[in-house]
Amino acid sequence: MSTHSLPGTRSTTGANAAGLRQDEVRERVLMFGLSVPAILLVVVIIGIPVGWLFWLSLFNDEGVLSTSNYTRMIEHKSYYRIFRTTFNVSFLTTIICVAIGYPFAYFLAQIPQRWANIGLIAVLLPFWTSLLVRTYAWLVILQRKGLINQWGIELGLWDTPLRLVHNLNGTLIGMAHIMLPFLLLPLYGSMRTIDQDYIKAASNLGASPFHAFWSIYFPLSLPGLFAGIVVVFVLCLGFFVTPAVLGGGRIIMVSMKIETIIDLFYNFGTASALGVVLLALTLLVLFISHKLLRLDRVLGGTGT
Amino acid sequence: MMTWLDSPASETQITHRRRIWLYIVATLVIVFLVVPTFIVIPMSFSASQYLEFPPKTWGLRWYGNYFGSTEWMTATWVSVKVAVLTVIFTTPIATMAAYGLFVSKIRLSRFIFILLITPMMVPVILIAIGVFFAYTKVKLNNTILGLVLAHSVLALPMVLIVVSAGLRSYDMNQERVARSLGASRLKAFFMITLPQIRFSVVTGALLAFIVSFDEVIVALFISGGKMSTITRSMFLALRDQIDPTIASISTVMVLITSVALLLAQMFGKSKSK
Amino acid sequence: MADANQINALPITIRGLTKTYGPVFALDHVDLDVRSGEFLTLLGPSGSGKTTLLMVLAGFTRPDHGSALFGDDEVIRMQPHKREVGMVFQNYALFPHMTVAGNIGFPLKLRNVNKATLHQRVESALETVQLEGFGDRQIDQLSGGQMQRVALARAIVFEPRILLMDEPLSALDKKLREHMQIELRHLHEKLGMTTVYVTHDQREALTMSDRIAVINDGKLMQLDSPRRIYDQPANPFVANFIGESTLLPVEHSDGHVSYAGTPVNVSGSESKDGRLLMLRPERLVLLKPGEEADYNTFQGVVKDVVYQGESFLLYVTLMDGADVAVRSVSQRGLLAAVPEVGAQVTLGLHPDETVLIPEGES
User: Fold this and answer.
1) Above 70 in pLDDT, residue A295?
2) What percent of chain B has a predicted confidence (pLDDT) above 90?
3) Is residue C5 a part of any domain in this protein?
4) Which member of A35, A203, A255 has the closest CB to residue B112?
5) Least CB-CB distance to C62: which of A13, A14, A24?
6) B168 in contact with C at a CB cutoff of 8 Å?
7) Residues C285 and C156 in one domain
């Protein structure tokens, strides 16, 4: 039987204490063990190769430990241009997405739930359709003999075919199309949770509809908006397929440069260095937004 | 119509008329989103040399090109095989991890969860060249196994997030009751919990399929020749010239994705809420 | 009165049960004995530890240390599915993907009972909870009361010798709850299994239990029959938690008890040296001049009169400043005698109902 200790005293030697502790440990290990296969998968397939790449980036072409792969990025103008292009494209795409996405999300949030769900299908269908297929569609639509030019000329809106693709314009249009659902989903989600009572209260207190929107609704929609902006921006930074196809070789993003370096020169040192920098930038953006936003809450996690 | 235009559309008594601009923008956005997604389908049935919309003549020549080409068909088969295997491999692993992390009381679980999400955060190109480099050392390039492993890692975060969300809206008391009635933890999970979260699991599986099937960048590096995926072949063809055969391939891809989506809706929803 | 169907119930012996969450003691060295076949209620405010105790018995919460015996078997380290206890949760936790019969048959299926016997026992369980014919219903077609009964049927169908219930009636509306309280009581008498019932509703506890264990801050405050818990609380916490009461300090001097100088006859009190006098509103009477002889008396002035439907409440301030509440049933004769605010009154407490409370936890 147990030794009677005084109430309120924590004793580690009560009856079955050791056994119970054993059971607790065993259960925790078991539950944790369930996630081991997943952890192994991520560590082996991503952790090790990326770590290896990072290691490689520290050696120059002769195999000597050096930072030349990184300093090259600062010295050669071409790298600066590539980073600038990447940032520009990402930035512009994000702006476009916000410009057309915010009104659309607002619209969806205002109409009754049933209709909004139908409207959401218009967002989810592209979201789940292969981005390669959609990029190809834009290529076809925007090219010299494509849809837009065909109709534009037929309707007499312009004479010579507009250069809508194989340049920055085409790239931006394509990327905006791909990224828009990523902005819409968190933004719409956060708008739906805004309690209409706030707007009613503001209007009751004398605010004009515009004022009620700007000072009440808009701030409340900001969390979803920021989350969407971060996701879009980060995705744009690392984007490859759409700019490669629609940019016509004129738009060179960091990811495309990396691919070229491997494809043409098989130079892992330089390519890895570029990749590491890209990763660092991505993490920086995520870190800053996490501090502002608690992104882990948005994406969900443990149940406790 | 006129009275509708003047009726209030919102709590602040803004009429529909004043909101017309919003409705126009919304319509344009819907067109912007939906048209490019589906426009390849009618275009693929055009019989002429160039793709046009609407097709002036209808025909199946591009489908003939597609199904008649051993290269394209092999590539399609590779993509389907890899996608299916990825689903089979990733779904149980991710579900186990989601459950284990959900039930675990260790504070470390939070970090593990974030660790498992990292494949979504790391730029894919970096993963691609890293895996390519590593695979060269262990001779996994141009293999189904190599592709499945790489795609599984990319799909894992999706499935994990979806299943975790499903678990959060599930009443754990049911599992406790089942255990009190005599079911071991394992039995309780399979007989009670899993049927309740099956919508999430199926959705996760579907997403894993789509992630793998549509994946381009990693496949670009680690698959090739006979083992090339359909996406890799398409991408390379796109960079070189605009082969209209791609329209028919795209249509088939959209079809496959839509079927997968439909299956998930039907199977996942049925009886549970 | 037990049936021929009676199950051999098991007693529960709890010793030194302790569970901490950081610096907080959810359970603090609890010792408790549950008699074989009795209906014991764990009663306490939220956060008192009563649900934690139940969960430890069920096996879902692991204590830091302690012992729990079901009969002669130590179960504290046993996994939940081996403990053979029936359990009913507050939110019923019925399996939505199975029918009523599927739910009830679940524990039997786990025990490899053959189809015919299983069907028969499910039917029998449905009969016991008065839900004959409901076997094929879906869970979302049931009302709250029906769900409750299915949960119950599921918990008893495999004839456990111990039944645990965690506030099973709190989700039901008042009338249904009171009806179910009586039904549960009848069911218990019929089946005879040891039942541990958790609630924060004292009325429920008083209605249903053979004995009540009052729990607060992870400690056992008192374990007694409902009558004795109400009439002879062991400490100020129980006196305040169960029913209404005012506690007044009394003085002792060589065997005599007095309040504010006036001697008090404590013949009805079990505790003869308690430091607090318990005044329950319904035990105090308004005395007319000449009636004081048989009572312990208290003089005071009426501060407020509150009509509450079936009774009315008088707030009286005693001579020494203490505030006391007096409750009188609204019967014809008594209504006429309700004093007005400001009136001088004499309150009487019969010695048989005069109880002293030991100073303790509060």
Assistant:
1) no
2) 48
3) no
4) A35
5) A24
6) no
7) no
Q: Is A77 helix (H, G, I), strand (E, B) or coil?
A: helix
Beta strands at C256-259 and C251-253: parallel, antiparallel or unpaired: antiparallel
User: Which residue from B minimizes the CA distance to C90?
Assistant: B173
**C135 in a structural domain:** yes
For residue B124, the model assigns a pLDDT of: 92
pLDDT tens sequence across C253-301: 887 888 888 888 888 888 888 889 998 998 888 888 887 888 888 889 9
The pLDDT, as a whole number, for residue C185 is 92
Cβ distance of C96 and B273 shorter than 8 Å: yes
Residue A173, C-beta contacts closer than 8 angstroms, at least 6 positions apart? A138, A142, A164, A246
What CATH number did the domain enclosing C302 receive? 2.40.50.140
Residues C18 and C123 both lie in one domain: yes
Q: What pTM was computed for the model?
A: 0.84
Could you tell me if A14 and C65 are in contact, meaning their C-beta atoms sit under 8 angstroms apart?
Answer: yes
Q: Which chain C residue lies closest to B197 (C-alpha atoms)?
A: C97
Q: How many domains does chain C have?
A: 2
CB neighbour list of residue B160: distance below 8 Å, 6 or more residues apart = A38, B94, B97, B98, B113, B116, B117, B204
Q: What is the CA radius of gyration of chain B?
A: 24
pLDDT in tens, A134-167: 998 898 888 887 788 888 888 887 777 778 888 8
The answer, yes or no, to whether residue C231 has pLDDT greater than 60, is yes
Chain C environment of A19 (Cβ under 8 Å): 77
Please indicate, yes or no, whether residues C172 and C266 belong to a single structural domain of this protein: no
Look at residue C1 and tell me if it is in a domain: no
Q: Which two tokens stand for residue C218?
A: 């992870």
Residues of chain A with Cβ-Cβ distance to C77 below 8 Å are 16, 19-20, 23
**Cβ–Cβ < 8 Å for B135, B222:** yes
- The pLDDT value recorded for residue C120 is 94
Contact C66 A13 (CB under 8 A): no
ipTM of the predicted structure? 0.85
pLDDT of residue A297: 54
Encoded tokens for C235? 């400490």
Q: Which residues of B184-211 are buried (b: 16+ CB within 10 A; e: fewer)?
A: ebeebbebbbebbbbbbbbbbbbbbbbb
Same domain, C198 and C129: yes
pLDDT at B224 over 90: no
C228 and C199 belong to one structural domain: yes
Greater confidence (A94 vs A6) lies with: A94
Band the pLDDT of B136: cuts 50, 70, 90: very high
Within this chain, do residues C102 and C229 fall inside the same structural domain, yes or no? yes
Can you give the CATH number for the domain in which C122 is found?
A: 3.40.50.300
Question: Are the CB atoms for A238 and A274 separated by under 8 Å?
Answer: no
User: CB of B195 within 8 Å of any CB in chain C?
Assistant: yes
Q: Which helix (H) or strand (E) holds A7?
A: none
Position C362 in a domain: no
Cα–Cα distance for residue pair B208/B195, rounded to 1 Å: 20
Q: Residue C25's pLDDT is what?
A: 92
Q: Which domain holds residue C44?
A: 12-237
The pLDDT of residue A222 is 87
How does pLDDT run across C3-30, given as a tens digit for each residue?
Answer: 444 567 899 999 999 999 989 999 999 9
Q: Does C96 touch chain B (CB under 8 A)?
A: yes
In this structure, the answer to whether residues C76 and C172 fall within a common structural domain is yes
Span B50-77, average pLDDT: 84
Closest CA to C156 of C85, C226, C208, C205: C85
Amino acid sitting at position C140:
D
Beta carbons of C15 and A8 less than 8 Å apart? no
Last residue of a domain, one of C203, C237, C271: C237
Please, what are the domains in chain B?
2-62 (no CATH), 70-240 (1.10.3720.10)
Q: Are residues C288 and C305 in the same domain?
A: yes
* Structural domain ending residue among the three candidates C237, C269, C288: C237
Least confident range from A134-143, C77-86, C353-362: namely C353-362
